[in-house]
Design goal:
Length: 437
């Protein structure tokens, strides 16, 4: 029965995060393709794109707040309740975005409503990720926690594949139809997906580790306070670890759409086709990465992959600059497969460094704060760099390398903290033994 629940929990985490990230990526893709035209029409194309990417960042601003609130509630009340709430919130917010009239219809209220519902999207994802990871990890067998936690991470490429399929369908419409109603279809589909996800999640039992803590009355009244008092270093380095795993996706899957269409003069259909193939490779390789990490050691694996992430943007841009669809796909695949290997493994790695009583708060706050600082601003910064250094890709590659370097610092920092903690425990044990004698 326990084995069955672990598989069901992993499957539910995968399905739930797929739907959540579908909604989030739908907004990101629409921001790159059309939202500037619909909601900020009285600007030039670059300014309109910057404005739409600024609203994209609003969702990331909301995520740290959600990480604190849902982390606290998840450690106090349980993982399952939070996941059901965030599912409904995301579905409603995304559906409402698809119903907002254009700027031409209601004026300034159009971008105001867009920002409001985008904020609610950020709140939902901010509370979702930590709970999904823990439901998969805490239901899993002890030796396979990293592998099972990676199923929550698989929701990211799966959601993107679904997003790209829907946008590929509606982008075949003529420009007028796409601008008037076609872009709304991916948002409105969220309502149906929300209903499916809610039913799947409702049938999963609460995390056994949280249930045990509740029964033993070891849950805390103020888990965030405890976290900030005794685990500040863990928070900082855990967040840094996931940097390229979050920011890198929005670099390759959001900013790259703008870069290829506006600066290389290629069609949006071409880059969407390329990203679709890239995401399939990403989806297939992430479980393999998690399996390999369990075999060779998670810390060692993450150090190697983070180091590779520093290097990969240079061959990626060399291949993208050829303007050949095959080479573009190959270049982006090289970068995405590398950063997604880190992303797949980092979830279980982060969860394992926090005790059960503060685990939801720990991984949520660390993840969401770094996402707000880096992932939410990456497309915006990339667009600024591309417009300022027209025809030069090296500043963009340096941005990617810098984000990867932060991940390497995070892994090494966690490793140092865990080593220090192990030494402290080993030094206390002989003292305890002597006292017992």
């Amino acid at each position: 029965m326990k084995k069955d629940q672990s598989k069901r929990a992993a499957a539910a985490a995968f399905m739930g995060t797929t739907i959540e990230f579908y909604d989030f990526y739908v907004y990101a893709t629409a921001a790159a393709l059309i939202l500037g035209t619909v909601f900020f029409p009285k600007t030039d194309p670059v300014t309109g794109t910057l404005a739409s990417f600024a609203t994209l960042a609003v969702g990331f601003v909301a995520r740290p707040l959600a990480g604190v609130v849902f982390g606290h509630l998840g450690d106090r009340l349980g993982r399952k309740k939070m996941l059901l709430f965030t599912m409904v919130l995301m579905g409603m917010a995304t559906t409402c975005i698809g119903l907002i009239p254009s700027y031409e219809s209601i004026g300034i209220w159009a971008p105001i409503l867009l920002i409001f519902f985008r904020f609610l999207q950020g709140i939902s994802v901010g509370g979702e990720w930590g709970g999904a990871v823990l439901m998969a990890s805490e239901h899993a067998p002890q030796a396979r926690k990293n592998f099972f936690a990676s199923f929550a991470q698989l929701g990211s490429p799966a959601g993107l594949i679904l997003c790209l399929l829907v946008f590929r369908a509606v982008s075949t419409l003529d420009e007028q139809a796409f601008a008037s109603w076609g872009w709304r279809v991916p948002f409105l589909l969220s309502f149906l997906l929300m209903a499916v996800g809610f039913v799947i999640r409702f049938g999963i039992e609460e995390s056994p580790e949280f249930t045990q803590a509740k029964q033993q009355e070891t849950t805390l009244q103020h888990p965030v306070k405890e976290l900030l008092k005794n685990y500040r270093g863990h928070l900082i380095f855990a967040g840094l670890t996931i940097t390229i795993g979050t920011a890198g996706f929005f670099f390759t899957n959001t900013f790259m759409i703008t870069y290829v269409t506006q600066y290389l003069g290629m069609s949006k259909q071409t880059i969407l086709d390329a990203l679709f193939l890239v995401t399939i490779f990403q989806f297939l390789t992430m479980p393999i990465a998690a399996w390999c990490a369990d075999k060779v050691g998670v810390q060692r694996f993450l150090i190697v992959v983070a180091s590779l992430c520093i290097i990969v943007p240079y061959p990626m841009f060399m291949l993208v600059e050829t303007k050949n669809i095959i080479f573009i796909t190959l270049g982006i695949t090289l970068a995405v497969v590398t950063l997604s290997a880190l992303y797949a493994v980092a979830a279980g790695f982060m969860a394992n460094i926090f005790p059960t009583q503060v685990r939801y708060s720990g991984i949520s706050i660390s993840y969401q704060f770094i996402a707000a600082l880096t992932a939410g601003t990456t497309p915006f910064i990339g667009t600024l760099l591309a417009s300022h250094y027209t025809g030069q890709w090296w500043p963009l590659a340096l941005l990617f390398s810098f984000l990867s370097f932060l991940s390497l610092v995070g892994v090494l920092g966690v490793k140092a903290l865990m080593t220090k903690q192990e030494k402290k425990i080993s030094s206390i044990q002989p003292m305890v033994a002597e006292e017992s004698v």
